[in-house]
């Protein structure tokens, strides 16, 4: 882990029912979580209010998406104002499922990030390469381009956590090796140093996501530039998610 406070997010994606989420929240409320870790969970929109109201204040809540501007005549969208209204503190933007399945591009994601940050939400900004991009030696190029799209528009870096999530590792059980993750995290930090500022590079948390679980988290957490995790599948199990939170070294 690096010098910033460890940050662990749980991305529940499009999973759960009222009952399963009630149980998950109750498990989370009763587990012991290291105090020196920021912990955030991201339920589906329809359960955000339920989760925000039932989780203890120890864990903050994130949305999985937000609209690019002020709410209004945008059928099916959820505004940043509405998220703030129910006590949501964060939003995940640029997740690979939204980039590659829904088709969101860098510019659209950048607009969302700028709007959310201007309105006071924290942003978990996701970047990461596809398998074919890695195999073609383009990992850094892809990550830097996605990073630049955020850097070009964000008002400040105070409220941003960068999640490096290689697409080939998401939901596949194929976790990046600690060395593979560390290599990209250092490169991202270096990019921030050169293109934003030394201060932003050293204080911005860069977390890893992609098949993190209770068994592989400790080795990853030892890497100097891994400042936490974004966890999908394993965040749906309270005790395993707690193990990941508590893997901070
Ligand atoms: C994610 O969706 O952000 C993620 C990392 O998923 P998983 O942990 O299931 O690979």
Automatic annotation (TrEMBL):
Transmembrane ranges, per UniProt, are: none
**Pathway per the UniProt entry:** Carbohydrate biosynthesis
GO biological process: any one? gluconeogenesis
Q: Which domain of life is it from?
A: Eukaryota
Look up keyword Acetylation and say if it applies. Answer: no
What UniProt keywords apply to this chain's record, in alphabetical order? Isomerase
Q: Which residues form the signal peptide?
A: none
- GO molecular function terms listed in the Swiss-Prot or TrEMBL record: triose-phosphate isomerase activity
Would you tell me the Gene Ontology cellular component terms? cytosol
Record's subunit section: Homodimer.
Q: Which family does the record assign?
A: Belongs to the triosephosphate isomerase family.
Name under which the protein is recorded: Triosephosphate isomerase
Provenance organism: Gossypium raimondii (Peruvian cotton)
């Amino acid at each position: 882990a690096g010098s910033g406070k460890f940050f662990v997010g749980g991305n529940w994606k499009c999973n759960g029912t009222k009952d399963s989420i009630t149980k998950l929240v109750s498990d989370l409320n009763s587990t012991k979580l290291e105090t020196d870790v920021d912990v955030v969970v991201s339920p589906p929109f329809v359960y955000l209010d339920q989760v925000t109201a039932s989780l203890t204040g120890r864990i903050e809540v994130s949305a999985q998406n937000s609209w690019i501007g002020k709410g209004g005549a945008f059928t099916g969208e959820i505004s940043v104002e509405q998220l703030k209204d129910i006590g949501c503190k964060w939003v995940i933007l640029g997740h690979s499922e939204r980039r590659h399945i829904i088709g969101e591009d860098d510019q659209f994601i950048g607009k969302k990030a700028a709007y959310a940050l201007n309105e006071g939400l924290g942003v978990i900004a996701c970047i990461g390469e596809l398998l074919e991009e890695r195999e073609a030696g383009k990992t850094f190029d892809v990550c830097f381009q996605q990073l630049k799209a955020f850097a070009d528009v964000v008002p400040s870096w105070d409220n941003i956590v960068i999640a490096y999530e290689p697409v080939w590792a998401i939901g596949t059980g194929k976790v990046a090796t600690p060395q593979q993750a560390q290599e990209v995290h250092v490169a991202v930090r270096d990019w921030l140093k050169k293109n934003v500022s030394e201060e932003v590079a050293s204080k911005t948390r860069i977390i890893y996501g992609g098949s993190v679980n209770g068994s592989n988290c400790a080795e990853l957490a030892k890497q100097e530039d891994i400042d936490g995790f974004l966890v999908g599948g394993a965040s749906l199990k309270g005790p395993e998610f707690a193990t990941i939170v508590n893997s901070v070294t």
